[in-house]
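Fold it.
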Amino acid sequence: MAFDTSPKLKSELGLFTTIAIVIGAVIGSGIFKKPSLMASQVGSAEILILIWVVAGVITLFGALTNAEVAGLISETGGQYVFFEKMYGEFIAFLYGWAIFIVIQTGSIASISYIFSEYFQYFIKLPRFPGIVENSFIIHIPFIGNILPLENIGIKFLTICLVFFLTTINYLGVKFGGGIAAFFTSAKVLILLFFVIAAFAFAGGNAGNFTGHLNSTFNNINANPSIFFGFVAALSGAFWAYDGWNNVTYLAGEIKNPQRNIPLGLVIGTVIVIIVYVLVNLAYIYVLPLDEIAKSELVASDAAKRILGNIGGGFVAAAVLVSTFGTANGTIMASARVYHAMANRGMFFKAIGKTSPKFFTPANALFLQAIWTSLLVMSGTFDILTDMLIFVSWIFYGLGAAGVFVLRKKLPSATRKYKVWGYPVIPIIFVLFAFFFVILTLYNDINGYLCGRYRIINSAFGLLLTFCGIPFYLIFKKIYRPKEVPNEC
């Protein structure tokens, strides 16, 4: 089918779907896996819950701040377009490049891979014998050897899922948005059912919520390095909250975006905080903290304690529903970034073309699917994504600081929503992002010097981002139009 750039993306998503996209992009697999590691890092039920609340509030501050910009600039491409207005095309391109090369595509690969792993609870996927898997090895500098044939059944199902969801979103934003709304509603209802079942469980113990705080603080006094365990736990919580700003990428396809995006960001983020805190309270009520800390699959262990033999199947089904919805929402939103970049002459020209039949960024969607599939086959997506979490928070901080930039650049622009608590809320988020980046860098350097890491992850993340500079120069020379229309 031929495509041209004349059709425009349609505004067909309402407030409910906008909220669903926010929630669906955030609640993935993190709430099923992260609490056990976080419990081992903090050693206190009270602090564990506090960390989920603090991470949620900081995320909400980011959403509140981002909402003002999203209400001012309602164009498809979201954060990429915001950065272009705030800091110019170079910073915007580096953000878009990082999003494409691994942040979002790596997230899609990781989430879809988890779907395939849990699918094995119901149907065992085929794999090659070990001698075949090890027969084809590729060495990547700084990362190590990768085995493209390893777990081939899981990888094949993952790629099929990516292309299936890509096709759904190619068939129309309303169709893709409807899928997002359905699976978001389903995952929230499943999690709430789990919470109710947990607190109705006769074997639960309210005493699990207390009794660790004093010993934890005593350990901190004796060993101040435990503080960095709290930082690591906070990082895990932020990973589970990540994706809250994906909805801004769809700004041009949301009805009344100046109203619905700010509302969607705030309402969606608040719902996620409530769900996450409730689920963690349920874990702690059912399992003592030391059991949570030792558990490899805390959700499965808790569900088995509550529901018996069917508990494992319940959790597997919950993860399938959750990751399916999250992968769909991430695929739908992320492609709009590359589409916007191409239409500004900062990416391959063909990627900016729109389907004349379905009014979707078809080429951007399928390019994203192809690159994601390559990451799936390489098996490096989790490694690369971990390296770029550091970079993500640099951009989060820049995005929040951009509120001050735009208030100075566009003082008379109509703002239907202004961030609550300005300038305190944006300043708190910017400062937090700054210190989080510094602490992450410190931890990475310390881990490298102590031999825990083979490379400094955060530095390698920056290197991957700066690898986009030659492409920036090429795109600017070949594709950049003489004048870019200002749609702000």
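The two ends are 32 Å apart (CA to CA).
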